[in-house]
Amino acid sequence: xxxxxxxxxxxxxxxxxxxxxxxxxxxxxxxxxxxxxxxxxxxxxxxxxxxxxxxxxxxxxxxxxxxxxxxxxxxxxxxxxxxxxxxxxxxxxxxxxxxxxxxxxxxxxxxxxxxxxxxxxxxxxxxxxxxxxxxxxxxxxxxxxxxxxxxxxxxxxxxxxxxxxxxxxxxxxxxxxxxxxxxxxxxxxxxxxxxxxxxxxxxxxxxxxxxxxxxxxxxxxxxxxxxxxxxxxxxxxxxxxxxxxxxxxxxxxxxxxxxxxxxxxxxxxxxx
Length: 272
Prior knowledge:
By secondary structure, the chain is an alpha+beta fold. The chain has helices spanning 25-38, 69-74, 82-102, 156-161, 166-182, 197-204, 225-242, 253-270, and strands spanning 2-6, 12-17, 47-53, 56-62, 107-108, 117-119, 125-127, 134-135, 143-144, 163-164.
């Protein structure tokens, strides 16, 4: 449960209180506290302090006034245009690239999804919730875990064998991108049997991409609709390269971030 509060100096904060009745709650608190205490990046949620007393555990976090990416995608009265969505994806990719290669030990978030992407007053994205994150030891390409992340966002090798590596986050990021630009949850009831969000998007690529992208992003009266659709093709192609079934064949976060920045430039330049 997350509560909103205010310090004596007027600073707003978010208090994340852990339900200690749940199995693994103490471990989740310890993991998240240690991770966020040591990690420093503009696109990660900042910890102000933590509270640990008898059977009470809470993290006091920087408050994010614009809520979650999930809220912005699915609230009928809120809207993100294509450039806003790309900026948020760049923010998330920057955070993930830092976790994978900018910190002393690679960190795997393990549970990347829209409800864990928080937006500040400038609509800058911050990755949050490190409760099941894993540190990779020196020279380790992967670790094994029994902790299950959110179905729909996890890789085949994580779901089947509990194998966690940085490429697991890349896969989740690809699914996050698909969801952000289609406004379809990977858990939607239409995705049953062999049909996943990845398969649905892949089947439409490239000629039928207009059938799956969020219709609000490309309107009939838009200026330069061809440029927009070309950017959408690039976004979808990147998302598909993040979600290749074979882990070693996936793109890495550094290259994904670089590709997103190029797509952003295409859109910005097309507006002038």
